[in-house]
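for the record, two folds in this file. i put them one after another cuz i was lazy. first one right below, seq on top, structure tokens after. the second one comes after a little note so u can tell where it starts
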Amino acid sequence: MSRGMLIGGGVLALVSGLTAAALAALVIVAETPEAHVERYLAALADDDLLAAAQFAGLETGAPLPLGDEGTPTTVRVVTAQDRAENRVAVTAVYGGESDPATVIFLLEPDARLLGVIPQWRFVAPPVARIPVGSDNHDRVRVPGRTVTTSGPGATSEVAAFIPARVSVTNAEPFLDAPSRVIRPRSVDPAPVILQAQPSDRLVREVQRQVTELLDQCAEQTVLQPAGCPFGRVIDDDRVLDRPRWERVDEPRVVLSRTANAGRFSLEASATMQITAEVQSLFDGSITRLVDDVPAEMLGVVALGPDGPVVTVYP
């Protein structure tokens, strides 16, 4: 055997030895279901949603679910247990220091990738379908977008990687609603429906509309303005001129929830003042009448596409 052949054979043996060692190391890293879960969670923690989608088993080009809104500091596989049908349940801890989530992922061998290195995949993509909504409005916000439902109290689904941190917040400035933050641990988590109350801005807007109504009513120079929540009855005197009305103070407004989603009951009150020249039917004397008259209103406020609509009951 020539020296050249011996050298060539030695190089080939060395390369084969290195390849086998590298392959063995790669098998140790890549063949376990725990490693697949770790890579998925690491991609989620790095906000690499394309990689997370690939590890999750989503089709290429499919819309990406919501990623993690927080800053995860915990990514740890706890246990792996064999299940029926050659499946493995991997328990992992993921999240931030204040809100870690323990999740069980179910994996199976990936029959699409046959070869020397065993591959694993999630039995079902770890993507949650979260129903979100508001009890008194048709819109809420999730990270990056506004979600519109079919109406107040209804929900619409948003997709999020499990267990990404997702916040659901109020999208209507005329309402106040505490935000909700969840880390879904299953593909079908419980609905997240915000409990909304009238905001200070809504009260101010309703007060503005009530004030406008009262001021319009005050333009009527009669004792009983038509369609208005105030008036004056004079039985013993005769009005000599047209009475004048004036609003004395700002309306006081109280809004309350009702059984009808997106509608609030209205109670409002204010003080109006009437001024008129009256003549006594008893002795004919003429006096100037100046009197405060209460204006009491009941109604309903509905949130429409152009803002709140105030209806005052006659």
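(here's the note) second protein begins now
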Amino acid sequence: MIKYFTFLFAMVLISSSSSAETKLSEEGLGQALFFDTNFSINRTMSCATCHEPAQGFTDHRTNRGKGMVSMGDDGHSIGGRNTPMAGYANTSPIFHFDEALKEYVGGQFLDGRAATLAEQAMGPPLNPVEMALPNAETVIKRLQENPIYTATFKHLYGEEIFNQQGENSDSIIPAFIAFGRAIQAFEKTDTFSSYDSKYDRFLRGEYELTVLEDLGRTLFFSNNNVNCNSCHKLKAEDSTKEPFSNHQYRNIGVPSNDELLKLSDVKNDYIDHGLLENPVVSDLKYDGKFKNPSLRNVAITGPYMHNGVFKNLSTVMEFYDHYNNPKRIINPETGKPWKEAEVPDTIDKEELKAKVLSDRKIDALIAFMKILTDKRFEAFLEAK
């Protein structure tokens, strides 16, 4: 809360001051840019619009996106994917191919097409269905409307930062790269990764698990029951600052979202190819694979899957269980059998193998995931 009021004070200072003497730190600059709506075409949308800190760094707006996807600054355009949580995104390494694992790892966006947080921050301002500015030059012109931004950029990145051009016509201008760097500096702070959930407090001896939470924890980390930790564990069991994602990519057979397709301008047979949409990935074996999300704050950041097709966490668990449990044939949200996978040929079937889950075990796993909620968001659990 102190950081929030510090931010408000900084924004009042920035908006009211005309003095070029005021300069911010890099993370302070990034914080101001993150909340500034001036970098969208109609000046009504900021990074925080779709990654609202008070809402678990996700988009909870009520609009035609229906919570499944975000709506752009034009008040009409919608994305094709559920907006990823910005919280704990700073735990993801630079996008790369791991030779030992023979896997793509890390990056930002659901297909890793932005290698770093800085690259990710540079995407939405220029995306025509998001903030919709025409080019990087427009971003920098708007930045230079603010004398404190201008002074801070020169202070942090050099007096000539606004005069530098890219090495060729296809390269990005240095000032826009600095724009991304500043937002990255803010996103790397503990504002985005507080590690103060009940689970973290349990590890520090400050919280005692309930019977159901402890059962869920045992199931989660067990290789003999379910297989959650094969995708959602990076370190050893009960390690501190566990991101609950290995930052790799998997196809778990998610079906298309008919409700979203009706809202979008795409055809009903549209297929999201996931990692294969990343321009550096061409091998067809990666078709339909999406980045394993962090389970931090998962209980308050639905809807779920890359297309927002499932509204409830219990549905997600029943979906996983249907691969192993012949009795789980009905999607509880539709009352109909589970739809076929959007990309059926590359499903990671081995990692989906697990023992059948009873309703109690599903409740236990959900109870465990609830205690991965940051302390500041625990009130949302009570509201749910």
